[in-house]
Design brief:
heterodimer, A: mainly beta, 11 strands, about 45% strand, B: mainly beta
């Protein structure tokens, strides 16, 4: 079955440590996205990538980094510079018609930093 | 003013009733609109998309779009307790810019 796989489901880290969240898709989608969800604030766009080896900052990119070395993979690194990293992180992808294609989401990674 | 606004709720309806969820958006250039359902602790799941003015029906769900008034709504007929979730409105206001509302929590009581 095609889909988006995020791992791990839960992640715990100490403050000051970098952490990388995995996102893999086998939908053959060109575009991939990372969103962050906090209670009462909806989804906010962190980074997105339209094609391999290219990505753009979203609305809240500070303290995060990404790479897109393969079409199927779009890992997100939460760095120690991110001031409030505890959140629910969602990876998504969309098809070729980026203007009208809906996003398909992975199951999310819940990150807790103490 | 937020780009996409939704009443946070909760919206409480009895089983079998029609639930009406509303969303307004600020950018007149927005071209595509989506409704997602999100159960607590889970990721959003697409339930409807709509691109032109009018109604679009899919099973018990009807999406309504009025670009002149800048609102999009979702009607759920014959509401079931399993419909209890948060419903997110998302608006594509340009290339790669999908903006989400904060969601409306729906509670359907048996």
């Amino acid at each position: 079955d095609g889909g988006i796989t995020q791992s791990p489901k839960y992640l715990f880290r100490k403050e000051g440590q970098n952490v990388t969240l995995s996102c893999e898709q086998n939908l053959n989608h060109d575009a991939m996205y990372w969103y962050r969800q906090d209670p009462g604030q909806g989804l906010r766009l962190i980074y997105y990538s339209q094609i391999v080896n290219d990505f753009q900052k979203g609305d809240i990119a500070e303290g995060y980094s990404v790479s897109r070395e393969k079409k199927e993979s779009f890992p997100l690194t939460v760095t120690s510079a991110q001031k409030n990293p505890t959140a629910f992180y969602l990876c998504a992808s969309s098809g070729r018609d980026r203007q009208n294609s809906p996003l398909h989401f992975g199951n999310g990674t819940r990150l807790t930093v103490t | 003013q937020k780009e996409v606004e939704q009443n946070s709720g909760p919206l409480s309806v009895p089983e079998g009733a029609i639930a009406s969820l509303n969303c307004t958006y600020s950018d007149r250039g927005s071209q595509s609109f989506f409704w997602y359902r999100q159960y607590s602790g889970k990721s959003p799941e697409l339930i409807m998309s709509i691109y032109s003015n009018g109604d679009k029906e899919d099973g018990r769900f009807t999406a309504q779009l009025n670009k002149a008034s800048q609102y999009v709504s979702l009607l759920i007929r014959d509401s079931q307790p399993s419909d209890s979730a948060t419903y997110l409105c998302a608006v594509n206001r340009g290339f790669q810019k999908l903006v989400f509302g904060t969601g409306t929590r729906l509670l359907v009581s048996p």
